[in-house]
């Protein structure tokens, strides 16, 4: 049982003894984390603290947030998402690098490495489902798990889009026109990689300001994508020999633009995890051309 005193209850051991730690009653660090927004129910409350009670009565240690039995699961999910984000960033960078350097061998490695991202997504999904089933989390804990699932899905799609670019490099079979045709696509990839780095940092730091900066920055990527399409159309009209390669580049550019959309999805998920509500404003979009709709994205 617990006696309500102040903002948080003070846990009482059997017989009514108030649990004490070096800093006083057990009512701030551990219980503050558990109860400040109703993040765990009575069952979790009892199961998580039963073993701690004896230790506190014996004066062994003061309660910590990391003693919460579901905390390690949430931390593991966050760690796996961070690892997955790093792999996705590398996939994007390597795919565009393979395109710029006409490197079919690197492109082949990108297609093979996508299996690692897929495996991590499956592991995250399995761990999240088991955590929900076993711990029955609520409020911020549940949002953390749902957020990890959302991020894993978007990162897996980014990995797939990078693999699509790598496949086009392989299909071109090292026959490339002048490098100037790729500069616009490289610029787009730099913007997207910057957005990915910023939004993953926002997730790691739980920084809603950075997440919103990424959310607003998607419009710039859309505008650059439109500019790249127009530039490539000009090259095709100037020299029909550029048509095949420029069409491949259009699909690559659209894949990169879709990566930017997934980075924006991640920003929205970070906002949801932190604030507990979706972003109310409509998403800013800078791509209104019909050519973008015709080219579309690859799955």
Description:
With 299 residues, the protein is mainly alpha-helical. Strands 1-2 form a two-stranded antiparallel ribbon. The chain has a two-stranded antiparallel sheet with strand order 3-4. It is globular. The chain has 9 helices and 4 strands, in the order ββββααααααααα. Helix 6 (183-205) runs antiparallel to helix 7 (208-238). Strand 3 and strand 4 (24-25) form a beta hairpin. The model is unreliable at 1-48, 54-69 and 290-299 (pLDDT under 50).
Summarize the structure.
The chain has 299 residues and is mainly alpha-helical. 71% of the residues lie in helices and 4% in strands.
Query: What's the helix count?
Result: 9
Q: Cα-atom Rg, whole angstroms?
A: 25 Å
Distance between the termini: 54 Å
Largest sheet: 2 strands, antiparallel
Summary keywords:
299 residues; disordered N terminus; single chain; mainly alpha; two-stranded antiparallel sheet
What is the fold's blueprint, element by element?
Layout (H helix, E strand, L loop, with lengths): L1 E4 L2 E4 L8 E2 L2 E2 L3 H7 L6 H16 L13 H31 L2 H32 L3 H34 L10 H23 L2 H31 L4 H33 L14 H6 L4
Antiparallel strand pairs: 1-2, 3-4
């Amino acid at each position: 049982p617990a006696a309500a005193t102040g903002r948080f209850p003070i846990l009482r051991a059997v017989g009514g003894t108030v649990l004490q730690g070096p800093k006083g009653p057990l009512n701030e660090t551990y219980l503050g984390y558990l109860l400040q927004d109703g993040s765990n129910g009575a069952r979790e409350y009892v199961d998580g603290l039963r073993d701690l009670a004896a230790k506190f009565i014996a004066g062994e240690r003061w309660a910590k947030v990391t003693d919460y039995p579901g905390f390690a699961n949430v931390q593991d999910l966050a760690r796996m998402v961070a690892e997955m984000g790093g792999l996705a960033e590398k996939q994007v960078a390597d795919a565009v690098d393979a395109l710029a350097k006409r490197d079919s061998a690197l492109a082949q490695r990108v297609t093979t490495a996508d299996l690692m991202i897929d495996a991590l997504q499956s592991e995250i999904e399995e761990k999240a489902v088991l955590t929900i089933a076993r711990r029955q989390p609520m409020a911020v804990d549940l949002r953390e798990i749902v957020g990890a699932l959302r991020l894993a899905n978007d990162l897996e799609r980014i990995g797939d889009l990078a693999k699509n670019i790598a496949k086009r490099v392989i299909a071109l079979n090292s026959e490339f026109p002048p490098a100037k045709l790729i500069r616009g696509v490289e610029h787009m990839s730099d913007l997207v990689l910057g957005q990915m780095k910023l939004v993953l940092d926002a997730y790691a730091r739980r920084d809603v300001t950075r997440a919103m900066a990424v959310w607003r920055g998607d419009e710039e990527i859309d505008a650059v994508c439109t500019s790249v399409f127009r530039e490539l159309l000009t090259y095709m009209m100037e020299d029909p020999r550029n048509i095949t390669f420029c069409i491949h580049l259009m699909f690559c550019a659209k894949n990169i633009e879709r990566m930017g959309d997934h980075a924006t999805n991640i920003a929205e998920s970070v906002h949801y995890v932190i604030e507990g509500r979706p972003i109310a404003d409509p998403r800013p979009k800078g791509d209104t051309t019909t050519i973008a709709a015709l080219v579309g994205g690859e799955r």
